[in-house]
Amino acid sequence: MDERSSRRQRLQHKMKETGIDLCVVTQNVDLYYFVGSMQTGYLFIPAEGESIFYVRRSFVRASDEADIAVEELGSMRGFGSRLTQAYPELFRKPGGEQTIVAAEYDVLPVQQFQRLEGALPGVKWVDGSTLIRELRMIKSPGEIAAIRESARVIDIAYETAIKALRVGMPEVELMAIVESVIRHNGHMGLMRVRGYNQEIITGMIGAGSAAAMPTYFDGPAGGQGLGPASPQSSGRRPIEANEPILIDIGCCIDGYVIDQTRTAVIGELPADLREAYELSEAVMRRTEAMLKPGVPCEELYTAALEQVRVAGLSEHFMGFGGDQVKFLGHGIGLEIDELPVLAKGFRYPLQPGMVIAIEPKFTFPGRGVVGIENSYAITEDGFEKLTVSREGIAAAAAPF
Amino acid sequence: MDERSSRRQRLQHKMKETGIDLCVVTQNVDLYYFVGSMQTGYLFIPAEGESIFYVRRSFVRASDEADIAVEELGSMRGFGSRLTQAYPELFRKPGGEQTIVAAEYDVLPVQQFQRLEGALPGVKWVDGSTLIRELRMIKSPGEIAAIRESARVIDIAYETAIKALRVGMPEVELMAIVESVIRHNGHMGLMRVRGYNQEIITGMIGAGSAAAMPTYFDGPAGGQGLGPASPQSSGRRPIEANEPILIDIGCCIDGYVIDQTRTAVIGELPADLREAYELSEAVMRRTEAMLKPGVPCEELYTAALEQVRVAGLSEHFMGFGGDQVKFLGHGIGLEIDELPVLAKGFRYPLQPGMVIAIEPKFTFPGRGVVGIENSYAITEDGFEKLTVSREGIAAAAAPF
After folding, report:
1. What average pLDDT does the segment A214-235 reach?
2. Does Protease appear among the keywords (chains A, B) (predicted)?
3. Which one of B110, B130, B188, B234 would you mutate to disrupt binding with A, by most A Cβ within 10 Å of its Cβ?
4. Which residues sit opposite B364 in a β-bridge?
5. Beta carbons of B355 and B331 less than 8 angstroms apart
6. What is the DSSP code string of B63-113?
7. Residue B267 — φ and ψ, nearest 5°?
8. What does the alpha-carbon distance between residue A168 and residue A176 come to, in Å, rounded to a whole number?
9. Ranges of each domain in chain A
């Protein structure tokens, strides 16, 4: 069976377990995941039977791309009755039970939702986003191969950045060099993020005090950015000698993202920052030792917290003070913020096919951020490290 | 009075007119517009009195950036009672009337909305997105100056692209050159778009048949893209001699975008495509003649339709066949898809301060897209053309 139809079948299986009659998929990334096309429209997946993709535009292109039946959406007015005709048994259930329809409440705007509610009066709506995100959490071999390719390209960009690093170079200039390398190597020009109001450019190259500035971005190191209209990532501050340079970069090739971080310096880091960096590698090694099927996600986080506490660096871990984030890593795939999250409350046991970016980092306000981030695929008996860039603090060209 | 407090006052004025007691602003761009910060949280603007920005993160940064009172959001549990204490007269109205609260239904996800509903039981929720988008439609002199700067930078990128154009160069290579120029000149690395599922990278450089491919993107020329996971914009097809090269590019500096299109060729265009290009300039000239306060937006579109009909190119205008889009232009500002839209049903009269990208284009399936796009600010007695790039078909280097 082909990959996408097996995804729909797995969703149907979960729908039956949870009593959902129909899933309406609307978000571009979820559409691509289930049918191979991100043309705009509504994908209806019934608990049993064939899915239909009703497309607004481009119908021509969706018909080419999707692996299931594609119909023109037409006007929303007649849409409800077309649906009840397409799925009569779902809308006229024995015993007069209410039809239960799930949608992606985590991304679907209220306006779009109300339009759907208007088209399907009388049904009961429920949030289907966790269902879909849990399915997407387990990657196929093909998906992992795509992430491997992004990992290969980001390594080229990383080595180029290390060679280009100079004292006095603004962070954003170095970021522009990285972006040019990845774009010439297949990067789509953007990285997708699911969370409301979250944006990611291509990560963040941040040096010294600028890297340590807190931001709204839901990650351990935000960065100064270019101003209040772009208040994260790289800024115009020139990179100085003997300060940590956090190179947290990613790219997106054929839809799949990679996320990696390395620490560099022009000259030498102060001893305490070097030790903090070494602790980030030690946390990584100990986390790797726990990467096997069955280990609950949250235990990776709590073990890291304990390791850092013993080393006396709790206050600096994953951000500083009130701006600390409460996780050690996150799933990646079509989006940068996938499941699982390595955080308290995430009891998912690790499973083969999960792909997780693990990012122990230490923030020193006014001085900088040090740390490392690798992405891993969980395998039957452990893990595959997808990140290929060399570890260790990269010593760039001489300071002067 | 400072610009942002005058924006809030204008919103309050509109709220009173429409009977809204409280606006909850949540989207990053709207937050930036009203208070100067895009840290995550909830901004409450009452119909009368002081606004409060409740911030999740970063509180430190929001306190720096915002021009109003900032409070830590804390847990959602106690949030409702904090709000009713902050605005007692709004939540206990004389006569026991229901409090009316508006939110941005066009972008707010259902999950976030339900969280707000839970925090404020008993109020009546309404869609506030048109109210906010209509406010943002009229730009201040400072906003127009920011767009002028983006227009200046995109012209540098355009001239660089024309110099770099070579036969056999993949579209995406030329796009990478444009992106590098704009990034080194202040582009934030992304362009914001409001519409659900809409993405924009930095526009599209598309040549020949690839440019004419329809896409989900709500614009007249989509492009082939890099594959079904990125099904729009530039692709890997090599640019050939004697075919139209549509250079539809933009950038975003200090939050404000520009959007411009030019047509180039290596060698010479076939006569009918050259004539179609000339018609796009003629449409532009006639549209310019209508750019003055008081003219209804939709009339610009219907006049263009008529001009194109008379010339016999209706079928090719703004896309081809079933994939045509039904507008001539759109507002730009902090987002690429602002009000007004130059389309039927948009009866807004042109007003000083509107900034509109006008983009007459003609699509020839299998052959390419030709056209032009300029951005204009409406002034007291006409318009200011913000786009500075030279018009006309750019003849690039010799074909061989």
Report:
1. 91
2. yes
3. B110
4. B368
5. yes
6. HHH-SSEEEE---STTHHHHHHHHSHHHHS-GGGPPPEEEE-TTT-BHHHH
7. 105, -125
8. 15
9. 3-136, 138-395
Mean pLDDT for chain A overall: 95
Percent of chain A with pLDDT over 70: 99
pLDDT at A1 over 70: no
pLDDT (0 to 100) of residue B246: 98
The verdict on a CB contact (< 8 Å) between B222 and A179 is no
- pLDDT of the residue at B222: 85
Tell which B residues from 104 to 133 touch A, by Cβ distance under 8 Å. 105-114, 127, 129
Distance from CA of A94 to the nearest CA of B (A): 30
> Across the interface, which of A183, A216, A228 has its CB nearest the CB of B57?
A216
Residue B301's contacts (CB-CB under 8 Å, 6 or more residues apart) are B326, B327, B328, B329, B342, B343, B344
Look at residues B246, B203, B220, B190 and name the one whose alpha carbon lies nearest to residue B358: B220
Across residues B182-196, what is the average pLDDT? 97
Find the radius of gyration of the CA atoms of chain B: 23
B351 and B343 in contact (C-beta within 8 Å)? no
Q: Phi then psi for A170, rounded to 5 degrees?
A: -65, 145
Sheet holding B382-385, edge to edge: B338-342, B329-331, B355-358, B374-379, B382-385
Mean residue pLDDT of chain B comes to: 95
What is the distance between the alpha carbons of residues B350 and A14, in angstroms, rounded to a whole number?
52
DSSP per position, B327-377 = -SEEE-SSSSSEEEEESTT--PBP-TT-EEEE--EEEETTTEEEE-BEEEE
d(CA B34, CA B6): 9
* CA B151 – CA B182 distance, rounded (Å): 11
Answer yes or no: are the C-beta atoms of B165 and B28 closer than 8 Å.
Answer: no
Q: How many residues does chain A have?
A: 400
- B94 falls in which pLDDT band (50, 70, 90)? confident
- Two structure tokens written together for A283: 């946390």
User: What confidence score (pLDDT) does residue A43 get?
Assistant: 97
CATH architecture for the domain at B3-136: 3-Layer(aba) Sandwich (3.40)
Q: Where are the alpha helices (DSSP H) in B258-296?
A: 271-290
In single-letter form, the type of residue at position A199 comes to E
d(CA B367, CA A200): 36
| Kind and range of the H or E run holding B14 | helix B3-18
* Cβ atoms A361, A280 nearer than 8 A: yes
- What is the spatial distance between Cα B145 and Cα B353, in angstroms, rounded to a whole number? 11
Which residue in this structure is represented by tokens 């009840």? A84
Is ipTM > 0.85 here? yes
Closest-CA residue of A relative to B177 is: A180
| End-to-end CA separation in angstroms for chain B | 60
